[in-house]
Amino acid sequence: MRLLLAAAALAASGVAAAAELKPWQGGPPPAFELQDLQGRVHRLADYRGKVVLVNFWATWCEPCRDEMPSMTRLRESLAGRPFEVLAINLAEPLSRIERFLEKVPVGFPVLRDRDTAVAKAWGARVLPASYLVGPDGRIRYAAYGELDWTAEPAQRRVRELLPASSAALAAPASAR
């Protein structure tokens, strides 16, 4: 409950708009096994070898809602590359998540953290909370608050984590 209250306070304060990706200083990512909206199980370990954006969010969190389209555009810009977005919803009813996704469709898995245990294990104390996991399975960067995933600083961080053969393909034409 404290996690939800802290996230609501951050969202209401407007502080979330100032988020930036910062190098991760913590330990390895806690393993998780969560179901998507269709009931399929996803494990972080299943994505080893890919760069993974793990994003904790809720439909009631305005910065989370605002951030979703930029994550979708990032995912689309890296189609065919070893990159995935996993959006982990915090303890909301399936019907509420589905209603949100009817209005804001996404092209990546939405997982359900029904009891917030995964968010707590990852230290996601405010929403949105995002973690960039490298192909080696280690967290490399974290951001707490809304981030524009289409902005150059965020895109650069993602590209630098992509395997060398894939990173050249993911760079914008102006950078090649």
Structure described in brief:
This protein is an alpha+beta fold and 176 residues long. It is 35% helix and 22% strand. The chain has one domain (2-163): Glutaredoxin (3-Layer(aba) Sandwich).
Description of the molecule:
- There is one protein chain.
- With 176 residues, the protein is α+β, with helices and mostly antiparallel strands.
- The chain has one domain (2-163): Glutaredoxin (3-Layer(aba) Sandwich), CATH 3.40.30.10.
- Helix content is 35%, strand content 22%.
- The radius of gyration is 15 Å and the shape is globular.
Task: Describe the sheet with the most strands.
Answer: 8 strands, mixed
Compute the CA-based radius of gyration. Answer: 15 Å
Q: How many alpha or pi helices? A: 6
**Overall shape:** globular
- String of helices and strands: HEEEEHEHEHEEHH
End-to-end span in angstroms?
47 Å
What is the average per-residue confidence, as pLDDT, rounded to a whole number? 88
Strand content: 15-25%
Widest beta sheet: strand line-up: 1-8-7-4-5-6-2-3
> What structural class do you assign from the helix and strand content?
alpha+beta
Low-confidence runs of at least 5 consecutive residues: 1-17, 167-171
Keywords for this structure?
176 residues, alpha+beta, 8-stranded mixed β-sheet, 6 helices, disordered N terminus
Could you outline the blueprint of secondary structure elements for this entry?
Blueprint: H1 2-13, E1 22-23, E2 33-36, E3 41-43, E4 51-57, H2 62-77, E5 83-90, H3 94-103, E6 110-113, H4 117-122, E7 129-133, E8 139-144, H5 152-161, H6 164-170
Parallel strand pairs: 4-5, 5-6
Antiparallel strand pairs: 1-8, 2-3, 2-6, 4-7, 7-8
